[in-house]
Specification:
The protein has 16 helices and 7 strands. The protein is α+β, with helices and mostly antiparallel strands and 399 residues long. A hairpin with a 2-residue loop joins strand 1 and strand 2.
Length: 399
């Protein structure tokens, strides 16, 4: 007797598997666990075979009968319905794989693997370049179909609006994603190689700085005389002595300082090279920090924002202070304190390796970098004190 919707719905699990036949080889398989599965028993080339048609109630009795009839039509044409199902499944899987290898999918895969080695700020910057400048043009395209011209068309959008450096950064980003795609098998070669050859060269603009000793003295006096937000004032006073990067300076926390050892250890996550960096503190810096402790010592940051103690001052705050002192963009920048120290220390004959170690510039060999970090520390400590004394001399010598 053919099945009915009611008999299918009311079928109960038993100790043993139950088969409820509908006709034409179609039956409902009821497992001891209660699952209800549609099956079709048929013969093809004198062999008995079984075809899974789906689970009830996702597949109703009416749907199951339709699938049975479609299978019978294939059998009438001497076509095995199981093979047709297998081919359809393979096609769907291939399409799904194809959709998973679009430029956007591959780029997000690459980003998820690399992001943990980057600062939150760098993660945000890379993701922004992908989402706002590359995905709108390349995102939906299959990686295997991309040609150099596709990448070039995307990055030349930035070049056409005059953002030459951005275009070069986008070319570099495309290259990183493409090399990853080649390694994991999404493409056979680095299709984004050599893109910068077709771009306008970047005109390198060095950070504006002051290296004339007399002008350095004027700058230090201007900083001492500047009246403004305490965090900004103290940060500008300390910065010439330690010449660290702005992000390292602004994010300084009291827990990073050892006043007895006169050292400041900047944690790896705030360093560009992702390695902890030790800054020997001259007597002048210790004195400034002791004064600062009376103002911000009860909080987390040395230089908290005026608007919220839970975050540090901004780079713009420091920059605006320089501008108010009369130092225009082309004269002095926050990064310029590093260039100032590098130039003058080299002129005074300090060893280049020691200066580079104090500037925390990248050392390609990690073992050598760790060795230099420890090996140069006594020499760096002496250099930093002599540098502080030198700056004090420039500041007091008004002639």
């Amino acid at each position: 007797m053919p099945l009915s919707d009611t008999s299918v719905r009311n079928a109960k699990a038993q100790d043993k598997a139950l088969k409820l036949f509908d006709g034409g080889g179609l039956f409902l398989f009821v497992s001891p666990a209660g699952g209800k599965l549609w099956r079709l028993k048929y013969r093809f080339q004198n062999k008995e075979k079984l075809l899974a048609l789906g689970a009830y109630p996702d597949i109703s009795l009416k749907d199951a009968r339709k699938k049975r009839d479609e299978a019978k039509e294939l059998l009438a044409k001497d076509i095995d319905p199981a093979e047709v199902k297998k081919e359809a499944k393979a096609t769907a899987a291939a399409l799904e794989l194809e959709m998973a290898t679009t430029f956007e999918a591959v780029a997000r895969e690459w980003f998820s693997k690399k992001r943990h080695a980057w600062t939150p700020g760098h993660q945000k910057k890379i993701l922004s370049r992908l989402e706002n400048q590359l995905f709108p043009i390349l995102g939906a395209k299959l990686f295997s179909s991309l040609e150099p011209g596709d990448f070039l068309a995307a990055i030349q959008k930035a070049e056409s609006r005059g953002a030459i450096e951005t275009a070069h950064r986008l070319a570099q980003l495309c290259g990183q994603v493409s090399r990853y795609a080649r390694i994991v098998g999404h493409t056979r070669y680095d299709v984004a190689a050599g893109l910068t050859e077709a771009l306008t060269p970047v005109q390198t603009n060095h950070y504006a700085t002051i290296t004339d000793p007399a002008e350095v003295g004027h700058l230090l006096r201007a900083i001492d005389e500047y009246t403004g937000e305490p965090s900004i004032c103290f940060a500008l006073k300390v910065l010439p002595f330690v010449f660290v990067r702005s992000v390292e300076m602004r994010g300084a926390e009291w827990s990073e300082f050892d006043f007895e050892a006169a050292t400041w250890v900047i944690p790896a996550e705030r360093m560009k090279m992702k390695r902890p960096h030790t800054v020997p503190l001259a007597r002048q810096v210790i004195s400034l920090l002791n004064d600062l402790r009376n103002t911000t010592g009860s909080g987390r940051f040395l230089f908290p924002s005026l608007f919220s103690a839970s975050r540090p001052i901004s780079d713009m705050g420091l920059l605006n202070a320089l501008r108010r002192m009369g130092y225009a963009k082309g004269v002095m920048t926050i990064h310029g304190f590093r260039s100032m120290a590098s130039t003058l220390l080299n002129e005074q004959g300090y060893r280049a390796d020691v200066i580079e170690a104090q500037l925390a510039h990248g050392e390609k060999n990690a073992i050598r970098a760790a060795y230099n970090h420890a090996e140069y520390l006594p020499e760096r400590r002496r250099m930093m004190q002599e540098w502080a004394d030198y700056l004090d001399g420039l500041k007091t010598n008004k002639d």
